[in-house]
Records
---
Amino acid sequence: MLLGSIEAGGTKFVCAVGNEDYRVKNSVKFPTTTPEETLGKAIEYFKKFKIEALSIASFGPIDVQYTSKTYGFITNTPKPGWKNVDFVGLLKKELDVPIFFTTDVNGSAFGEYTVAQLFNEKIKSLVYLTIGTGVGGGAIIDGEILGTKGHPEMGHVYLKRHPADSGFEGICPFHKDCLEGLAAGPSIKARTGIAGEKVAQDDKVWDILSYYIAQAAIQQTLILRPDNIIFGGGVISERLLKKVRRDFEKLNNGYIDIDDLENYIRMPRVKNNGSATLGNFALAFNELHK
Amino acid sequence: MLLGSIEAGGTKFVCAVGNEDYRVKNSVKFPTTTPEETLGKAIEYFKKFKIEALSIASFGPIDVQYTSKTYGFITNTPKPGWKNVDFVGLLKKELDVPIFFTTDVNGSAFGEYTVAQLFNEKIKSLVYLTIGTGVGGGAIIDGEILGTKGHPEMGHVYLKRHPADSGFEGICPFHKDCLEGLAAGPSIKARTGIAGEKVAQDDKVWDILSYYIAQAAIQQTLILRPDNIIFGGGVISERLLKKVRRDFEKLNNGYIDIDDLENYIRMPRVKNNGSATLGNFALAFNELHK
Ligand SMILES: Nc1ncnc2c1ncn2[C@@H]1O[C@H](COP(=O)(O)OP(=O)(O)O)[C@@H](O)[C@H]1O
Ligand SMILES: Nc1ncnc2c1ncn2[C@@H]1O[C@H](COP(=O)(O)OP(=O)(O)O)[C@@H](O)[C@H]1O
Ligand SMILES: [Zn+2]
Ligand SMILES: [Zn+2]
């Protein structure tokens, strides 16, 4: 059996086919240009394989409410040409298979959840947060993707300011100093003039970032009580997560008992950014069998 | 059929029996003294009725994990005498009926959820936040109580400070300036020297509180995407919620589309603090039929 995966990002698309072991059999990558060209390439790719179901993990915002008239659409994205594009509808016309549609971070969250089940880890709920060009998050609660009215937008929560960061206004176009405005990659450049990948390891900006990322982990802990909080995205490194765990402990101050913090706040188990593709295979499989 | 409800608060217990219409047939109130005396009174009360199931909505922290050795216990509460009390076990010994055990706020959340279903409202998910002596919260997601590893502790999230409140340290014994430390009833007295019920309506403390309560609503919106956020507790009034809605709109800044804010951020539908009792009846009924 072959299952299809589209990881639809704002800059590139990754299409893949895999089997029911969720192993990648073939994959292709191309830049995100116009919807016609990009979705055309995806359709052309999947027509070469006999896939039985497809799952799409897409950039957003997207409409995931089944009952909505614009279900399956990318909605009011600032990305030129992509506003109100009927992503699922266009694919459905050309590929006659069940299609599951979710956010990029939900795809990654579900991939990590699936791997945890395959490894027999006692994980029923988890959160996946990505800190990259933006900040996004998805959660799996008792095996189900969280978000019935719409998908979460966990990147835009407000936070307590770091004392050494009070002069920085924040760069979220909606909220200025929300999590994304304070801790996504571009905020590093806005503060230091240098892109995150080139900033010295001992720069104080890392302590500022970890303070905010730790607060996001605290919020998720207090609201969702997940088994794991997983961090991905270009800004995240094991070095930064060490600081995040340190700040989490300080901010939590013993209030919620976390038995293994190293494992609680961690990087993805699936390597090479493969969480979303694996998640898509599992979600496509589920879509076929429901 | 008779169903039992215990609303176990830190200062008082409310025991009630009701029928499968979730109407109160009889109820009694007594102060929370020692566990022996208080639970003894509850047992004595329910022995007078032929209840078929019981639900307890308790102050916490409590252990709600079925697989845990201390399931059904009140755990490390600061309340003298109540630490590590086997609440469910002690009742089970004397009352031979199925018992459901959850937090006070989960009970209230489930009561409001149940009423919404009875009124045919299109509500699948909601959050109940209480702002009283402390701040607590519970959520119902697709009809299920949220929190598998443990119950939420939504009152202790960190927030962006109100510019006119930067001189106030916050009074949470764990975190100082978390939501509870900044917005619970005692914070009003700590700032003004006057208890909340006596502070003038035009005092600026109400704008400070509403700013924090609105941020809590923003967080819940971004993380859980519920259909409604319901506020209870002594500090909450329709007057304060007006300010909360105003601040919510400013802080959201059009990011998440809320069609009817008046209905989205609101007081409980069940009057006279009856949400938890009604929720208990529904939870007891479910416990009997699962
Ligand atoms: N090693 C690094 N340390 C810190 N920031 C980094 C690092 N590498 C990339 N970044 C930043 O991460 C952001 C890109 O994130 P990424 O997750 O790769 O892409 P996207 O979010 O667009 O999918 C950029 O702002 C970049 O400067
Ligand atoms: N009208 C009011 N306005 C503001 N605060 C109030 C009002 N009435 C009571 N409070 C405050 O609410 C808190 C008590 O909350 P309540 O929900 O009644 O009790 P508890 O949380 O202990 O169950 C106290 O701090 C009290 O000062
Ligand atoms: Zn924002
Ligand atoms: Zn606190």
---
Amino acid sequence: MCQLLGMNCNVPTDICFSFSGFQARGGGTDVHSDGWGIAFFEGKGTRLFLDPQPSATSPVAELVRHYPIRSKNVIAHIRKATQGAVGLENTHPFMRELWGRYWIFAHNGNLLDFAPPLDGSFIPVGLTDSERAFCWLLQELRHRFGGQAPERTDLFDALHQLTLEVTQHGEFNFLLSNGDCLFAHASTKLSHIVRQAPFARAHLKDQDVTVDFSDVTSPNDRVAVIATLPLTDNETWTDMPPGTLWWFEEGAAVKTLPTRPGPIKKPA
Amino acid sequence: MCQLLGMNCNVPTDICFSFSGFQARGGGTDVHSDGWGIAFFEGKGTRLFLDPQPSATSPVAELVRHYPIRSKNVIAHIRKATQGAVGLENTHPFMRELWGRYWIFAHNGNLLDFAPPLDGSFIPVGLTDSERAFCWLLQELRHRFGGQAPERTDLFDALHQLTLEVTQHGEFNFLLSNGDCLFAHASTKLSHIVRQAPFARAHLKDQDVTVDFSDVTSPNDRVAVIATLPLTDNETWTDMPPGTLWWFEEGAAVKTLPTRPGPIKKPA
């Protein structure tokens, strides 16, 4: 399996601290050594860094850890290959353009017998179930809403319906962003934390690194960090119940919808 | 205006030497300081590094200069903004997916009154004439050939017809690649060199750096380098006549077609 890391903020924020801990899991403190990638939105533009090498030893990961790129939406992924060989074309996150915006997608899980018809508008370049699911999601969104981006509420509802279909095929934890919102699906395992004033100190689980967020933030900053497993050992992370789709915007959870039968906890 | 750099090879080759000279022109030895970018194909995958900072001082450019990424097709661009503000979304090269392959495009020039109808299949994210032209090219290619990639000869002929239309709107020097071939349009200014055995020493124009290619190559290697202006001062570069579209593959010019009236020189 793989690990996911996402960040959604109300002001452009760098992810150097969280990425330090996450990077270590790619062949250092954990086994996800089949490549890694990270995408940063800066306005409507995106920077996508991909490396089929383990993140723990990747020169590109070193750059990302030390070069503070300020972004309101970030998605990162470290890979333990299940479907598709180790190679750049199978490395997450994936990027496509829809409605004049870039969309970024990363997946943790494994989909079985998921081979929906693709009409040619978005075709996978690699061989992963993940990229296939991403292409299908975008195809279906365009099919529903045509050439014009919908209101965000309608977008979230459509994404919810589509997620219900894909999730029948297996584990489908994912992060998806168009630079405005970050959508997160907890299929089996995902947790998050919202940091806001009063800011405190945080200590990484995977490296002996501490940051005092009160030194590097303004009082109105708000940052949601979403990860497969909590990245710090002295903060309270919220488990996202299996079978929940989340919409984050401006550093906060806006809405949650269930994706499997049964009672769903409300966002903290 | 901007500057273009492309490389097309018969074996995966790193571009560190050429990029060193090119990088210096982005705010160092020349004025193209409104951002830069470079895309590497590795098989069907691509790595795209973009930075709205001048390349001469960009930490990402430093990484690219020192991290030998081996690729058969590379496209780089340093920007002097004409249309579209300085910003990540207006930074070349641009990337889209068509027929399950990534396509990379960079442009040097300025197009006036080029506002063709776009059907929604590829929409610019930024505000440059360049990205608009790229989206239109891909839209028209898909329109002609449907869901299936054509034979390369048919692709080149279609690209030629489309280039004839765009070039009526102004300067349209461009590099375009899908990872198999590299297409280069000399609208006003472009030159190239093909390096093959016997390999010799080359010295950069923009930095005092020399490489002896015989030390770093095998006898069957062949590398075509295409640039707005020659990058070395002790080799013979071939000017590509204004009004010629070139198809490079496996490190050699395969075919050339005229894009303006008048006699066209044959590839060297």
